[in-house]
Design brief:
4 helices
Length: 127
Amino acid sequence: MVVDRLRDGVRIAQLLASEVTGDRGRLETLAVTDADADVEPTLDGALAYRIVRGDEPVADAYVQPDRVRLEFRTAIDAVATAADEAGLRVRPAGGASPRTLVFLEDGAAVKRVLPALRAAVNADSTD
C-alpha cells in the first residue's frame, strides 16, 4: 500500500494541466493558457494558469504550497455538484463575479476533478 501522497501544489497543477491538454475526449475543447512555468506557490495562491474554452474562461488554477485551488467561472452550480460527488472540497465564492472553488489537495484529486471540468464543458452558459 502506498503511504506517500503527492502534496506539492506545483506538481499537482502540472498533473492537471497534462490531463486537460492530453484529453482528446470530452475535454478536447479546453486549453491551458497564460501558464507561468516559474510559478512559486504562496499561501494565498499564485496564478499558475487559466483553463479556457475558446475565448471563454472556465477556471483559474492557483498554486499553494500543498494544493491547487481551482476557481471555476462557468457552470458554477453544476461544477459544485460534480466536485462534491467526487469527494473534493468545494465552496462558493460570492461577489460581483460568483465562482465555485474546488481544492485539489493531492495528486489523486486530479482524476477526481475531471467530472467537474466536464460539467463546465457541457454547460451552455454560466449558472
